[in-house]
Task: structure prediction
Amino acid sequence: MKFSFINPSQTPGNLDMCSKAWPPLGMLYIAGVLKQEAIEVSALDQTARGFSEEQVLGWVKKEDPDILGFSVLQSSAKEALRLAELVKAWNLNITIVMGNYHATLNDVRILKKYPCVDVIVRGEGEYTSLNLAKCLEKGQDLGEVKGITFRDKGDIVSTPDRPLIKNIDELPFPDRNLTNAEYTSTVFGVKVATKRFTTVLSSRGCSFQCSFCGCRKFARGVWRPRSVENIMEELEMLQSEGYEEILFVDDNFTLNKKRARKLCQEMRKERLNLRWFCDSRVDNCDYDMLRDMVKAGCNGVYFGIESANQRILDYYKKGITPDKSADAVHKARKAGVGIIVGSFIVGAPDETRSEIENTLNFAQKLDIDVPSISILGAIPGTRVWNDLLNKGLINEDECWETGVFVPNVSPNTVSFDQIRSAIYDHFREFYLRPKLLLKETLRTLKSSYRIAVVLANLPRIDAIARELRRGVKYG
Result:
């Protein structure tokens, strides 16, 4: 039995288009569990390898798997389905499996519309994929595999959900060599990873209820951390393999401040020479924790600030205030965090022009290095999506594959084009302020990391300028 995996390329222009390619950890975790059970695996990251559809098909023909799995986000769904159709046209006997967020939240819709897809793995895929592979190998009833949706004699069958993995430590570390690719990280076209780079997941899930995010539904509202000892073992392994920059891709890296501080203390104790970055909620960070993070090599923090208006924050169900955001940024700067990124989302239903301008002005007032500004979007699995459905503002059958930008469907919202224009103006004003330019220049001269980023991006300055002019990201 051979199980091959493909991480398909994103389609430009999609709602959650993201200008970076990171290691597909979910896919690699599944592959590790399969390998432990002597199932042959292979993996292709289409974006990282720069493969065309014809090259991907050539890779599949060479691997000749029994099962072909696709890791599918909304941004990569169209490409995944095109590839699946190409593979099925070549060999009908290959079982096509799809998983990850988009597939999980649209399982029945995908199977109804696309006959090239045989099985959807819902939620966490490690043990579900293992059971699926063994079931197919033995020719047993797929109805016995928990956590899948499949087609059976013309009917679509959904088996009961598989329980979440309680002990994440039991999983083997992702084999990052499996994709045969090197990765980097970019922000608006700026290459921010200057040394050998990878990602690490130190916890899974999210217990918060942000209305624009589908993570809670996907992870069933449960946060599950790995132990500090298990994380350290992986970090030490990565350092021995030559990795020097790490991005923790947790939804809630600092949720347990005691755990975060203990990890930082262990990193210092073992003298790990890693530069790393992470996310943090603004209401879940204090100076002492941030200072421990900086001492342990943390070079950047990404804060979900979202809005300067409490009414909009309440609609987003963020559970924070603008004052908490300002306080978190102040603490991070005081603690010595090198790069502070703040995310903002505008274009909520009924959000006024003055509220949008208030958020853009707030982004300028905060002492952040990079504002990441998005226009609110809605995809299945989010509260915003359900809100639009309940108000009759979208046709689910027409929009489930692409999602929608809220200003394009909400009648009382400032238009998409007007918001995009305001964001363009903001970016221009933000980066051309003399005070900011002086401040950032002084910070760069004091930081070997910032100097390395500048040198790494000098040959790409024209491309970066184009990316900055685009400005708008997904919501």
